[in-house]
Every structure is written in structure tokens, then in C-alpha cells.
Write a structure and sequence with these properties.
Length: about 850
């Protein structure tokens, strides 16, 4: 682990590196515990560096102090211009005195991939070597200026007796026991990758619009070849989409994707050699659900799109992370919308934005999309940087229009190709093409917190006035908030249900601002924040009849869904707080949506979904009520039963009508299956699981197999099926992750911790595999009433396992500690129990910098 005292890094302290790099040559002699890495790097003084730092050693009379990052490396030898040197060990790396002129650095180090359980740097996963360098993992491979603003071309020689030896760029030479790769595009070290293993490929090819033929491969372990076809198609679709939509072509002769089982994240965009968590690329109808297929398509696109937004143009420093991540998420969202359905995709995006980013913004971990300081950068790959970062791009586009958006992107690519840049550089391109000052807009990057937008209406003489007031609650380190630029997409629906004013973007820039619509015949109903045009919380006075009216008539699918959601939430909150019966406005509205077969089945499924327990807990806090997790759970269960009763007469027909023929993982098929399975969930509350058991028996695809099992589990049934599932899939790691996850997700509140504990003793459980760890403990933390059960058993169990995991894998531990971020919402007893666990974690000897930073920030609430 890292024992250096944790240091805080500040954006304002940015300084360019003293040298630039002309070229990097690396040679790897692979060995599980003693891999040798030789480097030969040509450095030149950087003309953009502020001034040369003075030499520190008294015996050196000339030259510059030269610092290279390095962690957990055993230095074998180092030389400058052929003369051996002895570097000084300093915090986080080494230092030597180097010429104030071009020179050649040569070094050899030894590393141990097999014992690298952090899965960062060079490590082994099931006998295969692979790397993960973003953000700061390259320094665990060799001494190097491991920062994104140092870009260089790499030539890599890999020596080892494994059949497949891969690195970035184009293949140069291949012989017995070695391979040489050359990447002609300058890149930062975080995009370096190496893979070696006994792998097989699923091949493909793509011809770019200018006629360049590109070889494509998905590399997997033998036995997984049959699970690559879908990913390969997604890759080709992504390549075509980036040409058609952004005019961006691929730029190497080959594009490789590798699937690895042990991976901290979903996937990584290394230049020409993307590395994927196997769960995010391997797909077959027998083993993957529709949701898996959709995710795989999106993530393949995301990593491919980074080739331009991230790789060709990269970040100057890690504070600019949203420059590549927010933009690339926005791009993959648009791609998925084009491939499937924009309406459905948008609702799903808003659901995750609210569940993850609004939650983050509301608690101790709130930070700006461009943070100003960090201790461990891995802790800032957050929902805020990613999802709010993507929302900012969407707002920018809405404000300047599609044409200026595309022109601005073109200008950005043209100006900055091959550079490491900032948010200022990104915005400058749009200011120029749109002829518009984006200074106030830029606050979206620096101001944390979710703006609350209050709306009031006034109707007089055919004029409707909408008045908005925006406020943003304080967040850690930011008590004063300024008004933001908020694009509010608005339309008006007349009393007869016709749209009288189509979508217009109201541009709010002041704390309070009014907008008028004149010349209206009769008072219309305003449909506000269409398509969720800004990441804000809209508060308006609206009764359930008006909501039901908009649900029935709004032309904007997002608002139509939103009105149903508001009805559901309202119903649940008053059930929880006032013990009322559910409102008929809600039950009837849902019934008519379900019965409306002009609506996309996927949309109808989303409308049937209830707000999550976590979401309800936050809504209660916002209403000044301390949430009781058990009460929330009970009310939601009660409403599920009432819904099942109320929809009793339509469920069987819906179940029948939405049967699909042969399994095709497209939008149409998955929409029908999702509706059918949601209906099955309700049916199972009434028929003792007969229908679900029958479907489980004959299902020929994982969507229906897992879906029917979940319907049973959610009805307190399914023990036999769970056993059969394990027997059938015990040799498939990815499917077994589902087996672990499903049981914990649907466990009753008083059983969840006990079950997770038992599963952590299962022979197939291991904390060396992040997917498996997340299957059990991610599911436990997502089981709201189970995690927050009054006994505190789940808090204790999670803390025990986080402490154990931290010694192996700090990154995944830190990420999962975020489960505690909402702790101040709950009552004094729960708060005391959580605080005790957080303090226990923090008191662990040698706790990683990653987890220390997270737990400290969470405790500071
Ligand atoms: N660059 C990231 C992967 C990454 C994240 C590396 C954090 C190191 C630290 C990659 O492009 C990414 O964003 N992956 C996401 C999925 C994506 C679809 C949002 C992931 O892995 O979850
Ligand atoms: Zn990314």
C-alpha cells in the first residue's frame, strides 16, 4: 500500500512538467513474480515549463532536478546518456539531477504482477497478464512522469511464452516468444496497455469512410468465443456512428478489445487496446439479460468514442476529467438513443442521475464537476463528473443549437488534436462558433449542488406568466451559490389536450425570472423541464388531476413519465407519513398507460416502476421527516399488492400479448420482455408464483430465466429455482454473480445481512474478484431496508468486509464505502451505529489513502 502521508493536490497549483518526451521504448520480460521492465526515454527541456527548478543535491553543479513517479518498483539500474546514475528515493518516486538539454533516460525495474491484487498497474487475472493504468497506475510499471499532459509515442516489445502478446498501436514484428508494437499517436501514460495470455479472438473488420481497412478483434479466454458477436457488432455500429455524427474516423490499422475477469471498473479506453471487465463485453442470450446487452452496447461505444474524446485530445490534469468523461458519456447516451429509443433512454438516464448524482450532490461527498482538490484521484470518477458532466454538454447543445454544437466540436478537434487541454479550451471553441459568452454557463463546472427551481404561475387576459426562482443549497466548502444558466424546455397544453405552444427553451440566468406566453385563448397547462433539459429539482404547485392530465396529453415522453412518477411518489409519501390509502388518480392513470398499446412497452414498464426506497428516503428528508426504512419498505410492498389487485383484470392479457418469439436483444424485443416481466412480478403476488415457475422452467434466455426468478423472489418464493439456478450455472462466473446478487437484492429486511454473511462463506465467494464482491455487498447496500435494518447487522458486516478488502484492493473498497454517504438522513441510533463503523474503518492500521479519503469525507458530514 501507499505509506506516504496523504497529500492534497490542488487545481490552482498546476505547473507543466520540466521536460517533454520525444519517444518511449519499453521492453517487458514477463514473469509472474519478477517481470523486468526496461525503458529508454528521450527527454527534452519543456519550453513551456515555468523556470528550471534548482538542483537539490549539493554536489551537483549544473542541471535540473528531475522527478519521475514510481511506486512499488524495484530499481535494477538507471542511466542518463549511457552513464549509470543513482536516483534518490523521494515521496512517490525518484529524483536525479539531469541535464538542462535533451538526454536519454534508461532504466530497468522489477515488478510482481501475480501479487498485485489492487488490479492497478500490471497484474494477473486467471493466468493472463493485463494492465490498468488510468489514472495513476503506470507509475507501478516503470519510473515515468505519470501525468496526462506528458504525451509521447510508444514502442513496446513484449517477451513471454504466452501465445498472445498485445500492446497499443499497430503490430510491428512478431516472433517466437516476443511481439513488438508501435503506437504512432502521442499519448499520456494512462492510456498505455499490455495484455499477454492464452487467448482466442473473435475477428471482424471495418472500412472507414476514407477507405482505410481496420482489423478488429475481441480477445477472450478459450470457451468464451461464442459470446463476442454482439460486442463486435456494437463496435462496428459505434465506429460508423462516430463517422456519421461527429465526422470522426478511426486512426490505426487494428482495434483490439480484451475481456478480463478481474477488473475494478467496467472498461478502459487504452489506445487501440481497450480492456473490458468480462461482464461488460461477453454476451449470449443464455447467459446475459437484455439489460446486460444494452449496457455492453453502451460501454463498447463509450470506450471507442474516447479515441477522439480523451485519447487524441486528452486532459491537461485530472481536474479536467469531465472533459473526457462527461463528454464521452454524453456521446454514448446519444448513440444508445439512436440505436434504441431516445425517449426510453432519457428516462433511464434521469433515473440514474437522480439515484446517483443527486444523492451525491446532497451529501458529504458533493463536489463540483471540475473539483478543485483531491487526495486520491480514483475517488473522483463519480456520478457528478460523469453524469452531471454529460448533462452540461446536453445543456450547452440546447443553448447554442445542434449546428453550432457540431461546429464547435469540429473546431475543438481541429485546434487541439494531439494536445492535453482544459475545460476553458473546450468552451472557447463554442464561444467562438456561437458568438456567445459562456462565462456564466461555466459555473456548472465549478459550483456543486443541485439547483432547486421553484415555479409559480399567473394567468391574466390570455397571458400565462411562469416565474422561476433558483436556489442551490450549500455543499462542503461552498456556502455561497450563484445563479446558474438553466435551459428550461417548456411547452403548453390546451384544456382539450392539444399542444398550443410547442417546446421552447426558456433561458434562465437570474435568481428570479419570469417568462410570458401571450395571446392564448384559454388557460393552458404548462409542461415544464421537458426532456429533463437541466439537472435541477423542479418544485411546482401542481395537483394530482393536473398531473394526470399531463400524463394523458403531454407530447413530451419524459414529462409524461415524470407525471406518473410524481403521482406514485406522492401516493407513497402520504402512505408512509399519513398512513393513507393510495390515490385513485395514480392507480387509474397507471392502468390507462398500461392498457395503451400505442405506447412503447419499454415506456409502459418504466411507468409501472415505483420510486426506489432510497429515493423515497430522500424525499422524506426533503419534507422534514426522518425516514424509517422499514416503513418505506412496507408501504412500497403494500402498494405493489394494491397495484396487483387494481390491475388484476389486465395483467394476464398483458402477459400474453408481450410474449416474444426468438430472442433478439434489440429495443423492441427487450421492451416487450421488460413489460412482460414487470407484469409477472405483480401476477406472482396473486397466483402463488404459478406463472413465474412455469416461465422459469421453459425459459431459453437469461432475461426470462432471471426475470422469472426475480418475480418469485420478490414474492417471497423461488427457493427451489434458486437451487436449480446454482446447479445449472456453477461453472459460469458471470451468471453466478447474478445468483449471488439476486438473492441479496430481494432478501427480506431482517434477513439481508444474515444472507450476505452466509454467502460470503460460500466456496465460490472471493474478495479477489470485484464483480463477485460487488454482487454480494453491492446488492446488500442497494437493499435499502436490509442495509439500514435497525439491528445494524448490515453496517457491521459491510465494515468488516471493507476492512478486509482494503488490504487487497483499495480502489474498490473506497468506491463501496460510498454506501454510507447518506448516513445523516437517518435517526440518531442508526447514525451512531454508522459513525462507529466508519470510525472503526478509519482506525484500521495501514488503511489505504483511497479509503481514508472517502471515509474522512463521509464522516465530516
Ligand atoms: N476511463 C474510464 C475507466 C476508468 C475509470 C479507469 C476510473 C480508471 C479509473 C472508462 O472510460 C469509463 O468511464 N468506464 C465506465 C463505463 C462508462 C460506460 C461510463 C466504467 O468503467 O464504469
Ligand atoms: Zn470513460
Amino acid at each position: 500500500m501507499n505509506n506516504a502521508a496523504p497529500q492534497t493536490i490542488f487545481l490552482k497549483d498546476y505547473k507543466p512538467f520540466d521536460y517533454t518526451i520525444d519517444s518511449v521504448e519499453l521492453t517487458f520480460k514477463l514473469h509472474p513474480t519478477a517481470t523486468r521492465v526496461r525503458s529508454k526515454i528521450v527527454f527534452s527541456p519543456n519550453p513551456k515549463a515555468p523556470e528550471s527548478s534548482p538542483v537539490t543535491s549539493p554536489e551537483a553543479s549544473e542541471g535540473k532536478r528531475f522527478f519521475l513517479h514510481g511506486e512499488e518498483l524495484r530499481l535494477i539500474s538507471a542511466a542518463i546518456d549511457g552513464a549509470s546514475v543513482t536516483p534518490r528515493e523521494v515521496a512517490g518516486g525518484i529524483e536525479v539531477d539531469a541535464p538542462d538539454a535533451p538526454f536519454v533516460w534508461e532504466a530497468e525495474v522489477e515488478i510482481s504482477p501475480e501479487t498485485n491484487t489492487a488490479l492497478e498497474g500490471l497484474y494477473m487475472s486467471n493466468g493472463m497478464y493485463c494492465t490498468q493504468c488510468e489514472a495513476e497506475g503506470f507509475r507501478k510499471i516503470t519510473y515515468y512522469p505519470d501525468r496526462p499532459d506528458v504525451m509521447a509515442t510508444f514502442t513496446v516489445r513484449v517477451e513471454g511464452d504466452l501465445p498472445v502478446l498485445l500492446s497499443n498501436g499497430n503490430p510491428v514484428e512478431r516472433g517466437e516468444g516476443f511481439a513488438v508494437w508501435h503506437d504512432p499517436w502521442p499519448k499520456p501514460s494512462y492510456l498505455f496497455a499490455l495484455v499477454a495470455g492464452d487467448l482466442v479472438n473473435h475477428p471482424g473488420a471495418f472500412t472507414t469512410k476514407s477507405g482505410k481497412k481496420v482489423e478488429l478483434n475481441i480477445w477472450v479466454r478459450p470457451g468464451d468465443e461464442g459470446k463476442c458477436a454482439f460486442g463486435m457488432q456494437a463496435l462496428k455500429d459505434s465506429m460508423k456512428w462516430d463517422e456519421d455524427t461527429y465526422g470522426r474516423e478511426y486512426d490505426l490499422d487494428i482495434f483490439n478489445i480484451v475481456a478480463v475477469d478481474d477488473f475494478n471498473m467496467g472498461a478502459m479506453e487504452n489506445k487501440g487496446l481497450n480492456i473490458f471487465n468480462s461482464s461488460c463485453v461477453l454476451a449470449s442470450k443464455e447467459t446475459s439479460t437484455d439489460a446486460n446487452f444494452e449496457r455492453i452496447e453502451g460501454i463498447i461505444a463509450h470506450e471507442y468514442f474516447h479515441n477522439w474524446t480523451g485519447n487524441r485530445i486528452t486532459c491537461r490534469d485530472w481536474f479536467q476529467l469531465c472533459l473526457k468523461e462527461g463528454l464521452t458519456v454524453y456521446r454514448d447516451q446519444m448513440f444508445s438513443g439512436d440505436m434504441r429509443s431516445h425517449a426510453v433512454k432519457r428516462i433511464e438516464e434521469v433515473l440514474t442521475l437522480r439515484a446517483r448524482q443527486f444523492r451525491e450532490d446532497n451529501g458529504p461527498l458533493a463536489h463540483p464537476v471540475r473539483p478543485e482538490s483531491f487526495v486520491e484521484i480514483n475517488n473522483f470518477y463519480t456520478a457528478t463528473v460523469y453524469e452531471k458532466g454529460a448533462e452540461i454538454i446536453g445543456m450547452l447543445r440546447r443553448l447554442i443549437g445542434d449546428e453550432a454544437y457540431r461546429k464547435g466540436c469540429d473546431l475543438y478537434f481541429e485546434r487541439h488534436d494531439g494536445e492535453a487541454v482544459t475545460i476553458e479550451d473546450w468552451l472557447a471553441s463554442f464561444e467562438e462558433v456561437a458568438g456567445r459568452n459562456l462565462a456564466q454557463f461555466k459555473q456548472w463546472y465549478s459550483q456543486a449542488g443541485t439547483p432547486r427551481l421553484k415555479m409559480s404561475e399567473n394567468w391574466e387576459d390570455g397571458t400565462l406568466t411562469l416565474t422561476f426562482t433558483q436556489t442551490t443549497p450549500p455543499t462542503p466548502g461552498q456556502s455561497e451559490k450563484k445563479p446558474q444558466v438553466i435551459p428550461i424546455a417548456t411547452g403548453l397544453i390546451g384544456p382539450n389536450g392539444d399542444e398550443v405552444v410547442p417546446t421552447t427553451v426558456l433561458e434562465m440566468t437570474e435568481a428570479t425570472q419570469s417568462f410570458t406566453f401571450e395571446g392564448l385563448g384559454a388557460r393552458p397547462v404548462a409542461s415544464v423541464l421537458r426532456d429533463f433539459s437541466a439537472p435541477v429539482i423542479l418544485e411546482r404547485e401542481i395537483d394530482n388531476d393536473t398531473r394526470a392530465f399531463l400524463l394523458a396529453h403531454d407530447t413530451d415522453p419524459f414529462q409524461k413519465w415524470e407525471m406518473g412518477r410524481a403521482l406514485a411518489k406522492d401516493t407513497l409519501i402520504s402512505m408512509i407519513v399519513k398512513d393513507t390509502k393510495p390515490s385513485f388518480a395514480y392507480l387509474d392513470a397507471i392502468k390507462s398507460v398500461l392498457a395503451d398499446d400505442t405506447l412503447d412497452p419499454a415506456f409502459r414498464t418504466l411507468s409501472l416502476g415505483l420510486p426506489s426506497q432510497d429515493d423515497l428516503a430522500q424525499s422524506l428528508v426533503d419534507a422534514g421527516v426522518v425516514p424509517d426504512p422499514q416503513r418505506i419498505y412496507d408501504a412500497r410492498e403494500k402498494l405493489r399488492h394494491l397495484l396487483a389487485d387494481h390491475l388484476h383484470d389486465v395483467l394476464p392479457a398483458l402477459y400474453k400479448e408481450n410474449e416474444t418469439g426468438a430472442f433478439v436483444p434489440d429495443a423492441e424485443g427487450s421492451g416487450k420482455r421488460s413489460l412482460r416481466l414487470a407484469v409477472l412480478g405483480l401476477l406472482s403476488l396473486q397466483d402463488s408464483g404459478v406463472t413465474a415457475k412455469a416461465l422459469y422452467k421453459r425459459a431459453d434466455n437469461m432475461t426470462e430465466q432471471a426475470g422469472s426468478l426475480q418475480a418469485l423472489l420478490a414474492a417471497g418464493l423461488g427457493a427451489d429455482e434458486l437451487q436449480a439456478f446454482e446447479a445449472q450455472w456453477k461453472d459460469d462466473r458471470l451468471v453466478m454473480d447474478k445468483w449471488f446478487m439476486m438473492q441479496v437484492s430481494f432478501a427480506a429486511p431482517d434477513k439481508a445481512a444474515e444472507l450476505a454473511e452466509a454467502l460470503s462463506q460460500h466456496p465460490a465467494f472471493t474478495n479477489r474478484n470485484p464483480n463477485r464482491f460487488r454482487a454480494v455487498f453491492g446488492a446488500l447496500t442497494a437493499n435499502h431496508a436490509g442495509f439500514h435494518h435497525a439491528s445494524g447487522a448490515a453496517y457491521r458486516l459491510l465494515a468488516d468486509h471493507l476492512i478486509a478488502l482494503d488490504a487487497l484492493n483499495p480502489q474498490t473498497t473506497a468506491r463501496m464505502s460510498g454506501a454510507f454517504e447518506t448516513w445523516t438522513r437517518y435517526d440518531a441510533d442508526r447514525q451512531a451505529m454508522i459513525r462507529a463503523e466508519l470510525e472503526r474503518i478509519l482506525a484500521t492500521p495501514n488503511l489505504s489513502r483511497d479509503t481514508t479519503e472517502m471515509v474522512t469525507r463521509i464522516l465530516s458530514a
